[in-house]
Design brief:
single chain; about 400 residues; alpha/beta; Aspartate Aminotransferase, domain 1; Aspartate Aminotransferase, domain 2; 2 domains; 7-stranded mixed β-sheet; 4-stranded antiparallel β-sheet; 14 helices; about 40% helix; Cys_dSase-rel; PyrdxlP-dep_Trfase
Length: about 400
């Protein structure tokens, strides 16, 4: 069944401004159901959790619903959904709780810095998995030598946020688990671009950010509740010691959590489907991925025909994310030129600090990133290609 693109696009008020939003890899636009859910939560009145009055009970219900929604999205357990302001903050918190001096961690040059620096700053010994700078692949074979008896955590992305590479995470998980190590998967970029099953990936921890999949600025890390019971994070003495609450510092943004649930429901309803919300999510996200990949094939084919354009990375499996430079123009100049034509793209390192270094572009301003998500259409791609062609 064709992806109902026009119906999906009509859900996003921001798209009415006429711009081609190819900046989704840095954060998507917000559909009307999410806006309505956040507004409704504020209108109804909210209190902090755990109270005896209705406004507090509403907050309790919002938190529980949010955990269930995130669990459905990634194939996890609601009792293991840790909520926080963003993935970076949560990863720093868990890195300090999981590792320290005397341990070893394995990180990769493919990852966003949010899944690198938190692990390298705990005092643990660090081992690096290298990227093939030509293909953009993360060879699995190297992990057999990198993972050892002292390895506590292997941190790896499910998809590169600039070149889209989807490494073989299940194979890396097998090597990590064989050595008794935990696998921490950064799913921030992967989650918006297709169905997610954290158990199939072999992820002990799966991190995601709702603002990358049409939700508000909320982060989540999902794990088995039994695993979380074995981890003791630093916390305030009077704050809850239950799982997952003991990993959540401070008071949550309850209205935003209502928006997270609405975003998951929106994703589940994009394409026709039936069954549980989890089943509808798998169907809908698979249809969205097919739609994105069709557009992406046209985008990359067009860019590859331009002799003044250099595309980085040609991995076998990737999200619909292109990273390129234009001869004679800095990445920022290209982004400004395209913005003047009503096309939104990003330029720079995009926090892929190690990868842009491996690609040899970090010191010269990085490159241009154009990313597709489910609400993009063919006209967005055409406008990008025409704009880049003008810079020949």
């Amino acid at each position: 069944m064709p992806f109902p693109l026009e119906s999906v696009r009509s859900s996003y008020p921001a798209l009415a401004d006429g711009f081609a939003y190819l900046d989704g890899a840095a954060g998507t636009q917000t559909p009307q159901p999410v806006i309505d859910a956040i507004s409704a939560a504020y209108r109804a009145g909210l209190g902090n959790v755990g109270g005896a009055f209705p406004a507090s009970r509403r907050a309790d219900e919002i938190v529980a619903a949010c955990r269930a929604a995130v669990a459905d999205l990634v194939g996890g357990d609601p009792g293991g959904v840790i909520l926080g302001p963003n993935m970076t903050t949560l990863t720093y918190r868990l890195a300090r709780a999981l590792t320290g001096p005397g341990d070893e961690v394995v990180v990769s040059r493919l990852d966003h810095d949010a899944n690198v620096r938190p692990w390298t700053q705990t005092g643990a010994a660090v081992r690096w998995a290298e990227v093939d700078p030509v293909t953009g692949e993360l060879p699995v074979e190297q992990y057999a030598d990198l993972i050892g008896e002292r390895t506590k955590v292997v941190a790896v992305t499910a998809a590169s946020n600039i070149i889209g590479t989807r490494p073989d995470v299940p194979a890396i998980a097998e090597l990590a688990h064989r050595a008794g190590a935990l696998l921490y998967v950064d799913g921030v970029h992967a989650t918006p671009h297709g169905p997610v099953d954290m158990r199939a990936l072999g992820a002990d921890f799966y991190a995601t950010s709702a603002y990358k999949w049409s939700g508000p600025h909320v982060g989540a890390v999902v794990a088995d509740p039994a695993l979380l019971e074995t981890v003791r994070p630093a916390k305030l003495r009077p704050s809850p010691d239950t799982v997952p609450e003991r990993f959540e510092t401070g008071t949550s943004a309850f209205a935003d959590l209502a928006g997270v649930t609405a975003a998951v429901d929106h994703l589940a309803a994009m394409a026709p489907g039936s069954g549980t919300r989890r089943e509808r999510l798998l169907t809908s996200m698979a249809a969205a991925e097919e739609h994105e990949q069709e557009l992406f094939a046209a985008m990359t084919a067009g860019l590859e025909t331009m002799p003044h354009v250099t595309l980085y990375g040609k991995p076998a499996r990737r999200t619909a994310t292109a990273y390129f430079t234009v001869a004679g123009h800095t990445p920022r100049q290209v982004a400004e030129h395209l913005a003047g034509l009503g096309v939104n793209v990003w330029s720079g390192h995009n926090y892929a600090w190690e990868l842009t270094g491996a690609l040899g572009v970090r010191e010269s301003g990085g490159a241009v990133r154009a990313g597709l998500v489910h609400y993009n259409d063919g006209s967005d791609v055409t406008r990008l290609l025409e704009g880049v062609a003008r810079l020949a």
